[in-house]
Amino acid sequence: MSAALTWARVSYRQQRWELLLVVLGTALTAAAMLWFAAELRSLAAAHPGCVDGSVTGCKGIADRLDGLQAIGMRLLYLSFVAPFGMGVLLGAPLVAREIDGGTAQLAWTLSRSRMSWLLRRIAFVALVTLVLLGVLAVTSEILAAALQPTADLGHDFTWIGRRGWLIGARGAAALMIGLLVGALIGRVLPAILAAILVIGLTFTGVSLVQDRWLAAEAEVARFGFEGTTSLPAGSLLLDSGLQTPEGTNYTWQEAQARGLEVRVVDEQGRQYASNADLAAGRVLGVDIQFFVPGSRYPVAVAREGAVGAGLGLAALGLAALVVRRRRPL
Amino acid sequence: MTVLEARGLAKRYRRGVWALGGIDLAIPGGGVTALVGPNAAGKSTLIKTWVGFERPTRGTANVMGLDPWRDRSRALANVGYVPQSPALYDGLSVEDHLDLAVQLRRGFDRAAARARLDQLGIPRSSGARSLSGGQQAQVALALALGTRAPVLLLDEPLASLDPLARREFLHVVTDAVRTDGTTVLLSSHIVTDVEQACDRLIVLGVGRVLLHETVAEALGRHGITAGAVVGGFSTFRGPDGEPISLVAGAGERPATLEELVLGYLASGRSTAEVAA
To answer: Distance (Å, rounded) from C-alpha A226 to C-alpha A212?
Structure first.
C-alpha cells in the first residue's frame, strides 16, 4: 500500500495540472450528461403524449425537448473527443517530463530496471484514465438512452464511438500512443504537439479501416416503390447507389465512373438514362442503399476495441523499448 | 581489484563529434579518483557510459566486470550516481525522495540516508524545490550513498555549489570512502575543487586519457621550470602570465596539483593541434 501511495504521489505531483484538468473536465461532462439524461427522462415521463407526438398543442414542451436533445448530442461529441484529449494530456508528458526535468537520471540509476520503473510510473495515471474513461462510457450510454428512449442501443449504430466502452478502448490506446511519443521526444511541449498529430492520424487510420471493414459487410436495401422506404432501426447507412436489372450493385460514384447516369425516374422509382430509354422500357436500375444492420453493432465495437487494445499494447511495448534504450536527457 | 574499466572505449555522437577517442582505463577499488579535464573533454560521456546512459560506439566499459549497457540491472546494482545538476522531483519532499528510493532500489538504506541528511541539517519535510543548490546536491548524494553501492560516480556535482557547500559535499564523500570503502569517481573541470579529497587523478583531454596515476606518484614525478621547454608541449601561463612548463623530474620547483593538470592539458591540446 505504501508503495502504491508513493507512486501515486509521484505521478500526481508530476502531472498535477493535467490530472486536475482532466478529472474536472470529465466530472463536469459526466455530471452534465447525467443531468440532461434525467431532464429528458422526467420530461418524457411528465408529458408522454408530447414526446411521442400523439398529443398536439404542446409546443413549449417540444421546444424544451429539442433544446435538451441538441445540448445532449453536443455532450456526446465531448465524449468522442475526450479519450484522445486524455491520451495527449496524460500520456505524452508521462515520460517526457521525467526526461525534460532530468529526474529520469535519478530514477533510472536508482531503479532495478527501467521496465519496472516504467510500469510503476504509468500505473497510477493509467488507472485514473481508465476510471475516467469508464465514467464517460457509462454516462454517455445513459445520455444516449435518454435521447433515444425507444432504441435498442446495444444493437444500434447511432453515435458509435461517442458512447459505451469504445470510448475506453480508444482512450487506453491514445494514452499509450501519447506515452510512446513522449518517450521518443523527451520534451513535454513538443511531445504534446506531436501526440496530437500522431493520435489524430492513428485514429483517422483506424476509422478508415473500420469503414472499409463495414463496407465489406454491407447489406443492400432497395428503395422506392419496389422496396423499402426506411432502413431497419439502428442501421448504419454507408452509401447509396444503383442496382442494375442484372442485380449488380453500384454506389453512385461507381455508377458515374461506368457511365451509368440517371436522368429520368418513373413513378415506380425506376431509373433511366434518357426519355428514349423510358419510352423503350430500358431500365437502368433502381435506388439502393448500402447499410450495416444494427445487429452488427456489437461486432463492430468489439472489433475496433480489439484494434485499440492491440494498438495500445504495441505502443506500450515500443515505449518500453524506447525507455530501455534512450538517454535519460 | 579493478572496479571501473574501459577498453578502447570510443563514443561518437550523432552529429559526428567524437566525445571519447578510444580510451583505456582501469580504476582500482577504494579511494577517490578525480576525473579532471576541460569542458567537452568527455568526462560526462565517460561517466554516463559507466552508468549505462550512453552506448559505446567502440570498445567496452565495465563496472565490477559487468557491461552497464548489456547487463544494466546487475551493473547498476553496483553504482550510485549523482548527475551534474541534481534533478530532484519538484513537487516531492526530501522524505518522499527517500520513499521513492526505497521503492526503486532493493536494500536502499533509508536510515543511513536520513541520518546523513539530519546531520547536515537538511529538513526532510521540505520540498525539493525550496532547497538551496548545495542542499539539493547533498540530497542527491544521500540518495546515491543510500544505495550502499560499492561504486559512486559523481558527474561534476560541485560545479554549481558555493565554497562552503563544496567543502561539506566533499567531506561527506570522503567520509563514505573511509567508513564504507566506497570507490568514488568524481569529475570536475576545476582541479582545486577536488584536490582536498582525491588520492588518484585522471586527466582527460579531447577524448583521451592524458594522465592516470595516484596524486602522490604524479606530483613526485613532475616539476615546474620557468619559460617554455623545447617543443613547448606542456607550457602554459603561470599566475602572473609568465610562461612556465611542466617537466618530468624535479624541475626548478615541485609542481602543484593544479599545475600538473594544466601542464598535461596544455600537452594534450598541443598534441591535438599538431595532429590536426
So the answer is: 29
Q: Which residue in the block uniquely carries the three cell numbers 435518454?
A: A146
User: How would DSSP label each residue in B195-264?
Assistant: TTT-SEEEEEETTEEEEEEEHHHHHHHEEEEESPPTT-TTEEE-TTS-EEEEEES-BSEEPPHHHHHHHH
Q: Mapping DSSP to helix (H, G, I), strand (E, B) and coil, where does residue A102 land?
A: coil
Q: Which three cell numbers stand for residue B97?
A: 525522495
Higher pLDDT, B240 or A104: A104
Hey, are the CB atoms on A3 and B81 less than 8 Å from each other? no
From residue B5, how far is each of A131, B37, B62, B102 by CA, in Å?
A: 49, 18, 5, 29
Cell numbers linked to A318: 515500443
pTM: 0.87
> How much of chain B, in percent, has pLDDT values that exceed 90?
36
| Mean predicted confidence (pLDDT) in A61-85 | 92
**Coil, helix or strand at residue A321:** helix
Which residues of A lie closer than 8 Å to B, measured between beta carbons? 2-3, 6-7, 9-10, 12-14, 16, 101-103, 105-114, 117, 120, 325, 327-329
Residues 6+ apart with CB under 8 A from A65: A40, A43, A50, A51
B274 burial type by CB count under 10 A (0-12 exposed, 13-18 middle, 19+ buried):
exposed
ipTM of the complex: 0.86
Distance CA(B215)–CA(B227), nearest Å, equals 24
- Say yes or no to pLDDT of B275 above 50: no
What is the rounded average pLDDT of the residues A163-174? Answer: 95
Of A59, A70, A56, A61, the C-alpha closest to A42 is: A61
Distance CA B5, CA B28 (A): 9
Query: What's A91's DSSP letter?
Result: I
Higher pLDDT, A174 or A14: A174
Q: Is the dihedral of CA B33, B38, B39, B42 positive or negative?
A: negative
